[in-house]
Inverse folding.
C-alpha cells in the first residue's frame, strides 16, 4: 500500500460518507421508498444507486485524467470550482430547516432505473467530479480510479441504506427542529473537513 493511499484515503472516505448520507435526491427517494415499501423491496434501488455512482466515477475519472494530463490548468480550475461548490453545499446544509419527502409512485425504483438516475442527479455528478479531482490515492490513473470507485461504493451502500431501513424513524426524528439543526450543522462541518486537503492544494 503506497504512502499517498495512507494520506488521502481517510479524507476521501469521509467525503464519501458526508456526500452519501446527507439529504439529497437519492436519499429523499430512499426515505420515501423505505416508508412505503420496506427495506427488502428497496434493495434493488439502493444497489442501483451505488452501481450507478461507481460507473459514473470510473467514466469521469478515466476521461478527465487524460484531459488533465494535456491541460494541467483545467485540473486546478475544476478543483477550485469543486471546492467552491462544496463550501456552498455545506452552507446550504447548515442553513436547511426541513427535508421534503415526496410520495412514491406505486412501486419501488428498479436497479437499472436507479443506476440511470445518477446521470441526471446533480449531487451524484458533483460527488464523482469532486472525488476524482480532489483525491489521489495512487499515481497510476487506472489504479486511482478503481480505488476511488471501490472506496466510495464501500461507504455509499451502507450510508444510503440507513435512509431506507429507518425511513419512518428518520423522518420523525428530523421533524424536530432542534435535532435537525444539530444534524445539519454536524454534516456541514464534516463536509468542510473532508475537503480541507483539496482546499489547501488550491491555495498553494
Amino acid at each position: 500500500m503506497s504512502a499517498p493511499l495512507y494520506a488521502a484515503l481517510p479524507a476521501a472516505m469521509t467525503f464519501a460518507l458526508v456526500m452519501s448520507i446527507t439529504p439529497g435526491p437519492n436519499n429523499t427517494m430512499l426515505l420515501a421508498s423505505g416508508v412505503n415499501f420496506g427495506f427488502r423491496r428497496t434493495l434493488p434501488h439502493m444497489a442501483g444507486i451505488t452501481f450507478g455512482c461507481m460507473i459514473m466515477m470510473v467514466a469521469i475519472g478515466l476521461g478527465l485524467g487524460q484531459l488533465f494530463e494535456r491541460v494541467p490548468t483545467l485540473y486546478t480550475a475544476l478543483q477550485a470550482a469543486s471546492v467552491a461548490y462544496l463550501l456552498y453545499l455545506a452552507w446550504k446544509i447548515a442553513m436547511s430547516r426541513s427535508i421534503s419527502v415526496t410520495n412514491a409512485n406505486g412501486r419501488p425504483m428498479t436497479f437499472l432505473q436507479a443506476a440511470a438516475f445518477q446521470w441526471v442527479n446533480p449531487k451524484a455528478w458533483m460527488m464523482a467530479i469532486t472525488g476524482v479531482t480532489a483525491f489521489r490515492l495512487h499515481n497510476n490513473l487506472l489504479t486511482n480510479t478503481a480505488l476511488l470507485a471501490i472506496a466510495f461504493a464501500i461507504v455509499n451502500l451502507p450510508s444510503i441504506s440507513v435512509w431506507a431501513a429507518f425511513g419512518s424513524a428518520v423522518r420523525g426524528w428530523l421533524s424536530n427542529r432542534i435535532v435537525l439543526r444539530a444534524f445539519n450543522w454536524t454534516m456541514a462541518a464534516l463536509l468542510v473537513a473532508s475537503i480541507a486537503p483539496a482546499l489547501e492544494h488550491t491555495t498553494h
